[in-house]
């Protein structure tokens, strides 16, 4: 029995290597040999388990703490979608298999992508979707490449794209990478893009207008149809940054108010994982006249089956090595099916209610730069607190000590000392009340004990960093001797 066990272990452990193939000590050059034994620590399994368990307990996550992070909020990720994505029929697929037999071996996966595209068309009012882009920003660049291709085919080389000053930073970056110059329009008194200034910048050289609606102040632009009409009269396209779609689902479709191109963030609106830069998914939707420019391959339904189609000569080509981040797409598909139309509308209504509840409770203690009913998020300002030397950063650090992830701070850029708060639809009133109480306490501490805010956080392994020093004295190299 002992002999059988030893042989079995050696085989499984890979010890059955022919002796001739094992390098002998003499074969290793002297300069590569150690001069003394490696000083490796000897730890028990229990010590190792406790070390990593304690590290894991330090993690901030949506499963452990409230994330009122504005603009790209850490939404709750339902556990049932994780189970669906881990089903062997999906998780065991290799992306290259889809190319074999023109999708013959991946019919289920292709059907998921095809049906998700159709659902997103219905939700946004677009005619066609591509799920190939791997993130919202990736979709944004893809969309601007479509804008360039559209104008080029019409014999026009347009130079400019209009974005509001409250736009996400990726908007002007994507425009620039696609070869356009950016024209920034300031925010008016109503919290929306200044309509008069917008009209002044309309020229025949305008390629597109990029808008989030609701915008990053959480405000829906009441003039959006007029903006679209004016842009279209100049031959420009309307591009919808769908980061904030979760504030209007079931109430308004971007396609119905004049948008021609839409990108979505599945993590934001359809509750897929978000964090650390991914995994992401950025579906891109267009009106039918732009569909021919979408990335290839396209998935088409043929009889009862599905196949990949590369026969699109006007396409901008591939934008990803495989067809999107399939696991993320699958989770969004399951989420949409589970909630259905009524559930998605209810989620939107809850998100808007939660944001307005926070705004109404906190506007007495913080400056509210644009006092209007908001949608999915509200933007407050710590400008009142700066009179006592307290800034948005100090508030953010103190919230960490209260077990709350800080909201987005200093964005949008057109609000000084901005505190962007997005509670999402999944948080309970008790959670919101706890957050509101913490924010009210901070406003009071600003007047009575500002030092405690300046000294925060106190409960983290690493205290407040010298961000200015780190920015000015970059040290990107690891020196083992230090």
Describe the protein in words.
The chain has 2 domains: 79-338, Aspartate Aminotransferase, domain 2 (3-Layer(aba) Sandwich); 346-459, Aspartate Aminotransferase, domain 1. The chain has 15 helices and 12 strands. The chain has helices at 2-12, 45-57, 79-85, 88-91, 107-124, 136-153, 170-177, 195-200, 224-233, 266-269, 326-362, 392-401, 429-448, 450-454, 467-472; strands at residues 128-130, 160-164, 181-185, 206-211, 237-242, 261-264, 284-286, 298-302, 305-309, 378-381, 408-409, 418-421. Strand 2, helix 7 and strand 3 (181-185) form a beta-alpha-beta unit. The longest helix is centred in the C-terminal third of the chain and has 37 residues, at 326-362. The radius of gyration is 27 Å and the shape is globular. It starts with a helix and ends in a 10-residue tail after the last helix.
The whole-angstrom Rg is 27 Å
Query: What portion of the residues fall into strands of 2 or more residues?
Result: 5-15%
- Terminal CA distance reads 53 Å
Task: Look at the helices and sheets and give the structural class.
Answer: alpha/beta
Number of domains: 2
Give the total of beta strands: 12
CATH superfamily of the largest domain: Type I PLP-dependent aspartate aminotransferase-like (Major domain)
Largest sheet: 7 strands, mixed
Indicate the CATH topology of the largest domain.
Aspartate Aminotransferase, domain 2
Strand neighbour order, sheet with most strands: 1-7-6-5-4-2-3
For the residues shown, what is the average pLDDT?
Answer: 90
Assign the CATH architecture of the largest domain.
3-Layer(aba) Sandwich
């Amino acid at each position: 029995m002992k002999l059988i066990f030893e042989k079995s272990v050696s085989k499984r452990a890979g010890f059955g290597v022919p002796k001739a193939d094992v390098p002998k000590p003499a074969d290793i050059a002297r300069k590569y040999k150690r001069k003394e034994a490696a000083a490796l620590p000897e730890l028990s399994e229990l010590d190792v388990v406790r070390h990593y368990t304690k590290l894991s307990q330090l993690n901030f996550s949506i499963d452990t703490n409230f994330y009122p992070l504005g603009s790209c909020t850490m939404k709750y990720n339902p556990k049932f979608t994780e189970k669906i994505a881990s089903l062997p029929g999906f998780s065991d697929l290799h992306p290259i298999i889809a190319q074999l037999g023109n999708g013959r071996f991946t019919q289920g996966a292709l059907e998921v992508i095809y049906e998700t595209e159709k659902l997103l068309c219905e939700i946004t009012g677009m005619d066609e979707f591509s799920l190939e882009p791997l993130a919202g920003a990736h979709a944004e660049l893809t969309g601007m490449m479509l804008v360039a291709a559209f104008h080029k085919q019409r014999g026009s080389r347009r130079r400019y794209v209009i974005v509001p000053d409250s736009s996400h930073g990726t908007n002007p970056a994507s425009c620039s990478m696609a070869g356009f110059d950016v024209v920034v329009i300031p925010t008016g008194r109503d919290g929306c893009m200044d309509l008069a200034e917008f009209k002044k910048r309309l020229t025949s050289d305008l390629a597109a207008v990029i808008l989030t609606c609701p915008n990053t102040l959480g405000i829906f632009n009441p003039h959006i149809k007029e903006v679209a009409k004016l842009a279209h009269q100049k031959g420009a396209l309307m591009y919808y940054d769908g980061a904030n779609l979760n504030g209007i689902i079931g109430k308004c479709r971007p396609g119905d108010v004049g948008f021609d191109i839409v990108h979505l963030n599945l993590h934001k609106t359809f509750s897929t994982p978000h964090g650390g830069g991914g995994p992401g998914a950025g579906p891109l939707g267009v009106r039918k006249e732009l569909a021919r420019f979408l990335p290839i391959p396209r998935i088409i339904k043929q009889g009862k089956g599905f196949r990949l189609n590369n026969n699109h000569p006007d396409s901008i080509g591939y934008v990803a090595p495989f067809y999107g981040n399939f696991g993320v797409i699958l989770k969004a598909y399951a989420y949409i099916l589970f909630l259905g139309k009524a559930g998605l509308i209810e989620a939107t209504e809850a998100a808007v209610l939660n944001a307005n509840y926070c705004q109404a409770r906190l506007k007495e203690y913080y400056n509210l730069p644009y006092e209007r009913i908001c949608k999915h998020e509200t933007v407050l300002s710590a400008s009142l607190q700066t009179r006592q030397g307290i800034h948005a950063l100090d508030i953010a650090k103190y919230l960490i000590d209260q077990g709350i992830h800080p909201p987005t701070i200093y964005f949008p850029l057109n609000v000084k000392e901005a505190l962007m708060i997005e509670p999402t639809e999944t948080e309970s009133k008790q959670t919101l009340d706890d957050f509101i109480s913490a924010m009210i306490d901070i406003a009071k501490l600003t007047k009575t004990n500002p030092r405690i805010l300046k000294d925060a956080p106190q409960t983290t392994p690493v205290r407040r960093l010298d961000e200015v020093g780190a920015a000015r004295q970059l040290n990107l190299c690891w020196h083992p001797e230090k």
